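User: My instructor asked us to take a sequence, write out its structure as tokens, and then describe one feature of it. I'm not sure where to start. Here is the sequence I was given:
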Amino acid sequence: MSDLTHVELLWLEKRIENWIRFGRVAAEQVLDRRRRVVSFAPCSIFAFVRWTSSDYGTVVSKIDILRAVAPGQRCATVPYVRPGGDILLRLSGWPKVERVLQLIDAVEALGINAADAATDYWRHVHNRLSVGEAPRLYTRSRHQVWLQRRKIAP
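Assistant: Let's start with the prediction itself. The structure tokens for your sequence are:
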């Protein structure tokens, strides 16, 4: 049994598009032209985006920011993710998904890999999105505090 968390990605242009927005891929397996499986080491953070449309427009827009789990650890089930993950953020609806993608871009604009950002940031960003407020942006000083905290309490 593998210690990795596996995510199946599917790309049927303009129909079903599942992709990883950020994360450190530990392994990748190409199944065919349209399908592949990427794997993440335990405790790594990644963003998984799912988008589906029909002849009448977008049906599903979702983003999940997950922490890969270690074997035997409790986890939530997420479609296309085996065995599942610790959900840090789960949103649906294109306006919210688009806003989170913009926040990821803002973190990366600071020169910080979004996979290294504070897990608490990802856990709480949805609180302000759901009430329409502008979420607090991630900052370099906040990131430094997170790195210090991880040293004492991993």
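For the description part of your assignment, you could build on this observation: Residues 5-152 form one domain. Try explaining in your own words what that tells you about the chain.
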